């Protein structure tokens, strides 16, 4: 409902488009691929949701929107990769019409005879990151079965009605009441959210993004387990924010799937953001801050289905009041997929609106470097500011990973050139 209302206020805003493309390292049969795509879309009811705006508010139903799978051949272009990326950008920058047209777009882009991009874009009102992963996994499975000429396996998806019914049951349950009481008490005397920016602005444009890869072995020791990595990154960001701003009461957003049991197998939108509050002192080590972060995340996980929009209303926050500063998004989804005999690599394009700064960390299934995205509201940060912020954070991250027991205040964020500029020049 919050997404629906946001779209009514700014209907020409494309920030609720989410997207990715899957790079397939080999030849693709377009006919078999489209047949597989049609089967998966028929199985995934959330993709086919359509909306009606009546006198008593919006309603949704599972329809059969007309769609096609275009084959875009850019292999003869001087720069096929750039041409493919330009085509995708032109699509995802278009605002969606919630009352008309399908709320998804899929395309197959031929970059070379042995290299294809499968482009995927949906609206966040019907799909989140978990749903994206479920669709990609099923698509790889169905296409591979068609290539082999074997019978298609049973659909693992549940109906979207089950996702909605489970939410209704939760809201009527004693667990909802307990979760509500916990969060309202937990957020009493909540501090002002401090960020790296010096002002606020709504998210009306797609985020700025700067991506880097971190191969530091010290950091990778935390990456073997998604929970441990989440605690480490959360503590490191809190310490980094303290280092740069001096704030000791740090509040961060932590993205969660908000799915339990059978909901984990239903594509749709259920994701939530937990408010995480950490106390950072200069004489603390990162190790002690990790313990604090682990406890906060663990308590939040138990109550992750209570949505932060409900919490904002319960706390009677003004629209301009933020509940948290930077947001952390750990992406442990399995994208080690094969299409027929060919491996693939997933490339995230859009995660939805970014109010301030979102730091996304993508885990890999092997020893490949961690991918770290800094996504920022372009009204609040310039590209140069974002790059500098990320550069210093990676330096900080490497330092605390190598010696997690050292005092946070002892870590130097300036490189040799910057030290010379300050102290000598």
TrEMBL record:
SUPFAM superfamilies with a match to the protein in the record: CoA-dependent acyltransferases
InterPro entries: CAT-like_dom_sf (IPR023213), Condensation_dom (IPR001242)
All copies of domain Condensation, residue ranges: 3-423
Superkingdom assignment: Eukaryota
Signal peptide: none
PANTHER family named in the record: FATTY ACID SYNTHASE, NONRIBOSOMAL PEPTIDE SYNTHETASE
Annotated protein name in UniProt: Condensation domain-containing protein
């Amino acid at each position: 409902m919050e997404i629906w209302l946001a779209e009514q206020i700014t209907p020409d805003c494309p920030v609720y488009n989410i997207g990715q493309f899957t790079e397939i390292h080999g030849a693709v049969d377009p006919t078999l691929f489209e047949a597989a795509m049609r089967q998966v879309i028929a199985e995934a009811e959330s993709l086919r949701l359509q909306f009606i705006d009546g006198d008593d508010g919006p309603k949704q139903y599972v329809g059969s929107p007309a769609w096609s799978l275009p084959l875009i051949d850019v292999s003869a272009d001087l720069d096929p990769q750039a041409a493919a990326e330009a085509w995708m950008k032109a699509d995802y920058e278009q605002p969606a019409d919630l009352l008309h047209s399908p709320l998804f777009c899929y395309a197959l882009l031929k970059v070379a005879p042995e290299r294809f991009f499968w482009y995927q874009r949906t609206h966040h009102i019907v799909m989140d990151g978990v749903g994206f992963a479920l669709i990609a996994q099923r698509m790889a499975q169905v296409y591979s079965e068609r290539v082999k000429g074997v019978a298609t396996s049973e659909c693992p998806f549940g109906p979207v009605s089950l996702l909605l019914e489970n939410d209704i049951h939760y809201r009527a349950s004693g667990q909802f009441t307990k979760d509500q009481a916990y969060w309202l008490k937990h957020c009493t005397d909540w501090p002002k959210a401090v960020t790296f920016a010096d002002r606020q602005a709504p998210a009306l444009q797609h985020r700025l993004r700067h991506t880097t890869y971190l191969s530091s072995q010290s950091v990778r020791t935390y990456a073997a387990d998604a929970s441990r990595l989440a605690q480490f990154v959360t503590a490191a960001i809190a310490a980094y924010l303290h280092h740069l701003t001096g704030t000791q009461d740090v509040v961060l957003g932590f993205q969660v799937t908000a799915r339990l049991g059978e909901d984990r197998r239903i594509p749709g939108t259920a994701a939530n953001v937990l408010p995480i509050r950490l106390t950072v002192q200069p004489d603390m080590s990162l190790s002690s801050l990790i313990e604090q972060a682990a406890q906060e995340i663990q308590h939040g996980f138990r109550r992750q289905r209570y949505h932060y929009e409900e919490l904002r209303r319960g706390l009677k926050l003004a629209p301009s009041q933020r509940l948290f500063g930077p947001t952390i998004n750990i992406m442990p989804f399995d994208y080690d997929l094969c299409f027929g005999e060919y491996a693939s690599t997933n490339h995230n394009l859009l995660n939805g609106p970014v109010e301030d700064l979102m730091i996304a960390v993508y885990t890999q299934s092997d020893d490949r470097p961690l991918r770290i995205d800094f996504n920022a509201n372009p009204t609040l940060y310039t590209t140069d500011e974002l790059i500098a912020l990320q550069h210093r954070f990676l330096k900080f991250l490497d330092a605390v990973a190598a010696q997690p027991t050292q005092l946070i205040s002892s870590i130097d964020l300036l490189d040799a050139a910057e030290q010379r500029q300050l102290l000598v020049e």
